[in-house]
Amino acid sequence: MTETVRTERAGARWLTVAAWRGLFRDRPIIPLLGLLGVLMVVSELVRPGIVSTQWLGAMVRGAVPLAILAGCQTLAMITGGIDLSVGAVASMSGFVVATFVSSPGGWPVGLAVALVAAILAGLVTGIGVGVFRVHPLIMTLGMSFVVLGLANVWQLVKVQAGGGVPPELRWLGSASVAEIVPYSLLVFVPVAVLILLILRRTGYGRLLYAIGDNPIAARLSGARAWQVLITLYVLSAVLAAIAGFVLTGLTNVASVTLADSAVLPSVAAAVIGGTSIMGGRGGYGGTMVGALILTVISSLLSSLGYPEAVRQVLFGAIIVAVAAAYTRVTAEA
Amino acid sequence: MTATAGTVETAGAQPTEALARWARRNAWSLGLLAFFAALLVFTKFIQPSYGVTGVQGLAISVLPLALAAVAQAIVVISGGIDLSIGSMMALTNVVAASLMLGRSDEFAVVVVVGVLLLGLVLGAVNGALVVLTRVPDIVVTLAMSFVWAGCALLVLKTPGGGSAQWLKDLVLGPLGNEWIPKAAIVLVLIVGLIWWAVRRSRFGLSLYAIGSNQLAAFRSGVSVGRAKVFAYALTGLFAAFAGLSLTASTGIGNPLSGSYTLQSVAAVVLGGVSLAGGRGGAFGPIVAVLILALLRTDMTFLNLNPNLATSAQGIILIGVVMVGTLFQIRRGRP
User: Fold this and answer.
1) Domain membership flag for residue B318
2) Chain B window 156-185: which residues touch A at a Cβ cutoff of 8 Å?
């Protein structure tokens, strides 16, 4: 408060602490893009010549599944929730498609089956969170156990049928136009536009923010939280399934635990992108940049020849540092 | 709390009433215990050969998760959550195993004490970061789980190391009667002594205080920051116990040991500790761990696909919490 007063007295000086705070708070995407630029410069300095259009394409390709999963977290976190079931749902979806490759109907049938399974999982999660008011952390954690167990059973049932990652998914996940523009953007751009439009232009998006900001006020103003939450978790599960398809194609692996290791980074990407885990604040623009930042960091560290261990340590340290910086600058004190 | 304790003591004049009150207060844990007993009977019924070996196996297999669940319970009671417990377990596990390999028994004692201290420090770092940065605990501990897991990989790339024989003897096998597993005794001793001491202390009280209402605790003179760091440090200590129990029961260190973090959250919730903080104890989560492990055994006895056990665990978790929440809504406590 005192800070604001001081700024006004200082007049037109825009390079004040308060101005920077405002920038971080209201337009987190600008400092994030700055950080991304710095990371690219660092990459270029430690490995001259590495930054090229192809490198950029590879970064985007690697970030797409993470960015979609982080979209699930962004939507859930805006309502004050979290979705820990995205990993299980994504792995299950990719795996189910792979098991349908050699059966009649082929992979399109698998795609449909996987989507239906994901929608069912999301529906149950949404009913649990919205109607029975189970804590989202518990509900999605429990749902991830359920989905993982059922996917394992499915694996045993279908193990004789044989399968493999369909070439179409491989194309979607890992091929690029002229080795530069990845085809996975064909999926990602509509998804991103959808999420951005939902959050910025629709009443539904405003309901998400309202419920996260103040659930009681939202209820008193006539928002039906249970409907919003059920839709949210169904949407999140569908997005997770799509991420699973892309990830299966990208890695050329179909496994029931494929996306498990992406769950925590997806939360991290949303947090770095400026979405508050307490609800009511954030957006998808920052999340997308956050996913890119995480991808560039891990590529930078591996190009430096650091072992996986050091990468993990730095990864964690960076997340804490960025989150702490956010909390510092956005704290209303 | 002193006032409440006083009332309980006066009520001790009428033992039945005091007993009833105690039962009401621990209804959830007692219910879990009854369910566990019923499950044991059921297990004996479907598999008549279930006996000494089964009980011994159960005790040794649940020891690490039971300790992890107690660790999670402490921090959840204080109103937080620690998603780095599994990583802290891995780190303490590999540090202990790599230091003990081929060293004398006396040196192993030093290692055990050192590793427990390490656990305290790891937890205190988590707590200090939560307090100092004011970032939500779920984010901090999530990030720190990467850090501690990375450190574990730096210590030991692949499973290896060793354990002192006395440490293995401490948890493996029976004590006296063949029905009493040493692992159970160790668990009861560790949790009993430390938890009892903490509950009786001022810090234990402030733990519950900041968990149930942080502002009220602050206004009654609780140093919230210090209490939080203490809670996380205690969680780290129990994670170190869990890591050591892994070293003892497996005889090696494994930098990628299992998914204990999320399992511990599940056990804590099933054990009657409210995620909102301030309610619950260490006993319920331990019984919940026992029940989940025995259910998994029963599913193999029943020739069910063991993978369904994972699903069953999820369904139980969701179901129990749903029922609990419904009761709370009925009682008008949102």
Assistant:
1) no
2) 157
